[in-house]
Amino acid sequence: MLQEGAHGKWTVSSSDESTEEVSDNEKPSTSSLSHAAQGRASMPQYPCSEARKAAHKRKASPVKFIDKGFPPERQPVEKQRHGQEGSGWCLSSSDEEPEDKEKQVHKVTVKEEKNNSPEEHPPDFHQKNELLGNQKAEEWCGAPSETQDTWDLLNGGNPFRFFLTKVRGIEQSYNSGALHIKDILSPLFGTLLSSAQFNYCIDVEWLVKQYPQEFRKKPLLIVHGEKRESKAELLAQARPYENISFCQAKLDIAFGTHHTKMMLLLYEEGLRVVIHTSNLISEDWHQKTQGIWISPLYPRLPQGATDSAGESETNFKSDLISYLAAYNSPALKEWIDNIQEHDLSETRVYLLGSTPGRYQGIDKEKWGHLRLRKLLREGSSSVAAQESWPIVGQFSSIGSMGADESKWLCSEFQDSLVATGASGTALPKCAVPIHLVYPTVDNVRQSLEGYPAGGSLPYSLQTAQKQLWLHSYFHKWSAEVSGRSHAMPHIKTYMRPSPDFQKIAWFLVTSANLSKAAWGALEKNGTQLMIRSYELGVLFLPSAFGLDKGYFHVKSKLHSESKDPVTSFPVPYDLPPEQYGSKDRPWIWNIPYTNAPDTHGNMWVPS
């Protein structure tokens, strides 16, 4: 659909009409079956979002940058469109229709293609990334880490058990404490008997190949939220594998999704739980910043143990069972029993989930942002209430927040994030700064993947136009601390740092983006919480790690040679975050970017 305004012309996907409450990456897309006529080679072989389909299309059929006579690594200020001045974004960087651009591509040769890569990457960065498709990427990180390295990661030096995924194309020392999915499924973690994979976007063939050969025929349950054509597509993928079964999560409220990302791994030696932020597709484990929490190996309880046996001080066991029970599915009964039979007492994190429904009374505090509010009131220190400790939220997609900040962000949601265990009166909300971290157009353009990285940052034009006020809260993505400034974030994190950003009162890693669908929204004069989607994360509180000061110190470098104390928390991006400058724009996936090339010498024309 072609639209025209004061800022030029642009195209948007007619199937991506935004709803009031759902974040853009959560809107179910039509199945790739419906795109068969467009050519299967250019489409992913699994259900996914419209934004990701656009990224697939542009990887398969890139639109080369047309040299307009300015340096390729700097967008020309004089050619940028500053419509909506002061809002921190613009609709389009081009006056020309993207269709016209595609026609011109064949007539223009980009002669200096090799020089389009940023200086901070190795000289062969562009050539490697141009040649490396997903198959090559899989070969690079397909072999699990060295045995001793993986063993050390799991059993020493990381009391938080919080990891990042490996990233191809960064300095190797920044991957020394990171994991690929093949590491997680390695026999080093246990002798697998069966597993369950909870996720949103799933490539079954790729997933099976991530298991070691000796585990590929073990029972595998896939928990998903697909319906109709997308469900048929998912089931069709699994036909060659007799060991795979499915559990379809019930999604009775419109625009809800099954966004949770979790692995349950049953071994001969015990049980392990993995809660993470990556879809089960190759791209999510290649050149993105993703987070993983890996539980200890939970031993089996002796026969005859009571139902309350094996509980942790954080009530992780009963909360995980409650989360699984919320699916109301016979397929998960076996996994509830498995968890019940194991000792989870060594868990130090709190489980924080969302499940679809409308909740009243005490049930209101079981899920979503009211669950976070309850945990912070019961388990966090009063230290953050004594001065203006800010809030940081970092995410990869954004839902509709309403006409202004009072509608949700700076009312009920902020009330939950500023909750503390303080007995006194907390600071007024207006005294608590909110820093929202979301990539700029230049963050995406200069990334390892180039513009296609924006396929997993599906903030749409339709949503952005409704909430220009929100962009004044935005801060750039920068992750020099972990070597991942050019690995676009699909991780979602929330935290409460001190005013000098040297300490944090708590840290949350979760699947939940910045949306009411994920976190819930109050209804009926605050007596009811409505949640659309399934989400899952883990909350780190200092008290659960024996720190009586009420805060974690922030680790200064996530590096193999870091000398920080072991109790310093590894925040994976730079603090304090840097606010958008006057020329920075949030990445919006469904408009073209043609004024400057990405690291592969390409433009972004999404349709």
TrEMBL record:
The record marks 515 as: Interaction with DNA. Its main location: cytoplasm. Belongs to the tyrosyl-DNA phosphodiesterase family. GO terms for cellular component: cytoplasm; nucleus. It holds the Pfam family Tyr-DNA_phospho. Residues 1-127 are annotated as: Disordered. One of its GO terms (biological process) is single strand break repair. The active site is at residues 259, 490. This is Tyrosyl-DNA phosphodiesterase 1. GO terms for molecular function: 3'-tyrosyl-DNA phosphodiesterase activity; double-stranded DNA binding; exonuclease activity; single-stranded DNA binding. It comes from the Eukaryota. DNA repair enzyme that can remove a variety of covalent adducts from DNA through hydrolysis of a 3'-phosphodiester bond, giving rise to DNA with a free 3' phosphate. Catalyzes the hydrolysis of dead-end complexes between DNA and the topoisomerase I active site tyrosine residue. Hydrolyzes 3'-phosphoglycolates on protruding 3' ends on DNA double-strand breaks due to DNA damage by radiation and free radicals. Acts on blunt-ended double-strand DNA breaks and on single-stranded DNA. It is found in: Cytoplasm; Nucleus. Keywords: Cytoplasm, DNA damage, DNA repair, Exonuclease, Hydrolase, Nuclease, Nucleus, Phosphoprotein, Repeat. The keyword DNA repair applies. Substrate binds at residues 261, 492. PANTHER family: TYROSYL-DNA PHOSPHODIESTERASE 1 (PTHR12415:SF0). Residues 65-84, 100-127 have a biased composition (Basic and acidic residues).
